Amino acid sequence: MQLTLAHLYGSHMNIYGDRGNIISLRQRCAWRGIELRVLPVDVGSTIDWAECDMAFFGGGQDSGQSLIADDFFQRQSEGLARAVEHGMVMLAICGGYQMLGHYFLTHTGEKLPGVGVLDVHTVGGKQRLIGNIVIESKLTQLGSTELPTANYQLPTDIRLVGFENHSGRTYHGPGVRSLGRVLVGHGDNGEDGVGGAVYRNTIGCYLHGSLLPKNPQLADHLIRTALQRRYGSSVSLAPLDNTLELQAQRVMVERLLA
Amino acid sequence: MGLASQARSLLAVSAGKATSAISRTLRLGGGTNAPGTFARQVDPHVLERLTAALPGGVVLLSGTNGKTTTTRMLAEVLRASGQRVLHNRAGANLITGLTATAIANADGLGRPRADMGLFETDEAAFPQALAETHPRLVLIHNLFRDQLDRYGEVDTVAKAWKKALASLPATSTVILNADDPAVADLGADLTAQVRYYGLDDPRHASGSAAHIADSQFCRRCGAPYNYALLFYAHIGHYTCPRCGHCRPEPDVRLARLDLHGTEGSQLYMTYPGGAMELHLPLPGLYNAVNALAATAAGLALGVEPIRIRGTLENFSAAFGRIERVQAGPDGPPMLIALIKNPVGASETVRMLTQANREPRTQNPEPSVGNTQYAVRSAQHTNLHVLIAINDKFADGTDVSWLWDADFEGLAGRVAGITVSGTRAEDMAVRLKYAGVPSEHIRVVPESAPALDQALAGLPGGETLYILPTYTAMLELRAELAGRGWVRHFWED
Asked: Which of B301, B333, B339, B302 is nearest to B320 (CA)?
């Protein structure tokens, strides 16, 4: 089996170890004999979004974000929005998450447009929200695909652990569900305890860390969803030994909640 | 200076000295910052006053990686030329550390017991250090992502540096790394005199673009640079195809570099009016570039080339940077190499894997386009490594950087890896995804048992390579000192 992942502007949007998410998806596919083809989407690239099973959009420096914004809106946003509507699996972190929303209102009052794929908007703040973060997520309720098959037990509640570092405050509209409840840290805006947004099979959040390596349940959820969408709902994921990953997750959750 | 402010300054010096003595007596550590903090409360201008009294002026050195080693090299070079140098050698590079260093080197009347001040300076502290010390010479070595939770983004740091450098007068000199576009561009439109150094040996081009390079896009117009040579990260020979912005021609060039495993390297440098060849007893490309930077600064300060060469040939690195330690009188050798950010960690991994792959080669002649600079022998899979990752404030509380570093080079090369530190588990996951089999990864969070287990698993004749973050290195070094294997760092 093969999956195709579009990596949006990896050479500009690659801050805080976000490439760890790609490494995680690629390795967890490879260990199961699934080939993950990574399509780099750079300034000027032409992408057939219909062939993409997954997409990843990380965070970047302000300069990186402004260098890719025009290209993204002119060349990719329409195809990407359609793919999201059709259930493409997407993970967007920080800057990538913000650009999927309606707009970003900077603290100087400038309104930078977003794609509007996610019903969220972001307001720039002066104080950066920085630190370890834990959110409690009901993974089984994510997305539109069916529940996992019998040979793989997905916990109903998992605690996702990461590190956030953002000045933007993201607020949700009625068109998205929350990825989880913030147990430790600031979350999307530091006010309402919401951590991350979900719409169809797209997830946006502020968890660097990297997110997927230490939260293998979420990584597998994304892979399974993409596989079932491409190859049918009977496809199941072979189990992997997650001892090291779950230990890393548990150690931080326990330390932060202590 | 008025009488009142003079008295205040003197009081600050005394207060700082007292704090230092108390700190050491109570074993609170080396007393490298606290005296500075306290003295600055008494007299906020104490650093400015003390450094203004230095007849030979002040030299500041900043950058992400290599500043401790480079500053130390330069300090030795200046001492060899007969200068009395005050130097924050314990690596206390925040403004309080600079202040503490100046106080420790002042006499009871607040007069410096040195000719020159030489300070390695934290990236974030650099603008304030420059404003307070009015340096005659500044060297900026490189700029990589490092502790983004603390310093902010690379562009933010570069902007702050640029603003600070713009305030320097024409009598000051700024020395910049030509190969780092973000650093080289700082030289544009300065009043101060600008000099560049750079690596000119094409055999060290890695040939592949790094995925985490921070400044691979033109500083002026945003287009991706074309690299004729890319050494690592975004360091190399670059030209912007759109606006033509390109690497400046260096004044001091490392024209030929031959790496000799973990032993050291042979450097051939040229400068206006001369050239020198020397053997550097430190391994790796980055240490050679540190020596190049120290040479450029030494020459700019008027040191005789022969003194620079003699000093560098007998140089030993600062504690924990690249340090060889024996585990007791009959114990095995250990090599400690600090890792603290993605580029530094990647380069250290590259040094280890290359050093243990390549036999010592006869100096091959460099030739343009020839990227094979050493004979490859069969790969060894016998590396024994201890990696210690902490997430304390001085390390950076965000360990996301582990995913920006290339540990992939260790896959297939390690016989055993012990991971320790407050983020031992994160490191274990990183190694697993880098391709190191889980069964080769031993997780031992506490430093003393980690060291014991790593040594216990070491076959005879092998070296234990220890890669700690900053505070993990301090812990480990305290442990080694407790066992009588090394001295305490403030005695170093």
From this structure: B339
Enter the DSSP assignment of B439.
Answer: G
A:B CB pairs within 8 Å: 95
B302 contacts: CB under 8 Å, gap ≥ 6: none
User: pLDDT higher for B316 or B52?
Assistant: B52
Q: Is A86 a catalytic residue?
A: no
Residues of A in contact with B403 (CB under 8 A): 17-20, 23, 210, 213
A205 is catalytic: no
Name the residue with higher pLDDT: A26 or B233. A26
d(CA B226, CA B242): 10
CA A185-A189-A195 angle, 5° bins? 60
Q: What integer pLDDT is reported at residue B243 of this predicted model?
A: 92
Q: Please, which pLDDT band fits residue B379 given cuts at 50, 70 and 90? A: low
Q: Does residue A35 contact residue A1 with C-beta atoms inside 8 Å? A: yes
Of all residues in chain A, the percent with pLDDT exceeding 90 is 77
The whole-number pLDDT of residue B120 equals: 95
DSSP code of residue B251:
S
Q: What is the pLDDT of residues B84-99, one digit of tens each?
A: 999 997 778 889 999 9
Closest CA relative to residue B214, chosen from B87, B64, B422:
B64
| Catalytic residue selected from A7, A94, A166, A205 | A94
Distance from CA of B441 to the nearest CA of A (A): 10
pLDDT tens digits, B323-346: 889 998 889 999 999 998 888 899
pTM: 0.80
Round to whole Å and give the CA distance between B203 and B401.
28
C-alpha B454/C-alpha B418 separation (Å) is 6
Question: What residues does each domain of chain A span?
Answer: 2-257
How close, in Å, is residue A210 to chain B by CA atoms? 6
A242 in contact with B at a CB cutoff of 8 Å?
Answer: no
Residues in chain B with CB shorter than 8 Å from the CB of A186 are: none
Nearest chain B residue (CA) to A211: B400
Q: Which of residues 216-235 of A touch B (CB under 8 A)?
A: none
pLDDT for res B17:
78
Q: Is B468 helix (H, G, I), strand (E, B) or coil?
A: strand
pLDDT of residue A143: 46
Domains of chain B (ranges; CATH) run: 56-92+117-312 (3.40.1190.10), 321-491 (3.90.190.20)
A27 interfacial to chain B (CB closer than 8 Å): yes
Strands (E), A97-253: 103-105, 111-113, 120-138, 157-172, 177-184, 194-199, 202-205
| pLDDT tens figures, A122-171 | 999 989 999 999 999 876 555 443 333 333 334 467 899 999 999 999 99
Residues in chain A: 258
β-bridge pairing B137-140 and B116-121: unpaired
Assign domain A2-257 one CATH number from 3.40.718.10, 3.40.50.300, 3.30.565.10, 3.40.50.880. Answer: 3.40.50.880
Q: A179-193, B31-45, B346-360, B469-483: which has the minimum mean pLDDT?
A: B346-360
Chain A residues near residue B397 by CB distance under 8 angstroms: 131-132, 163
Q: Which is it for strands A177-184 and A194-199: parallel, antiparallel or unpaired?
A: antiparallel
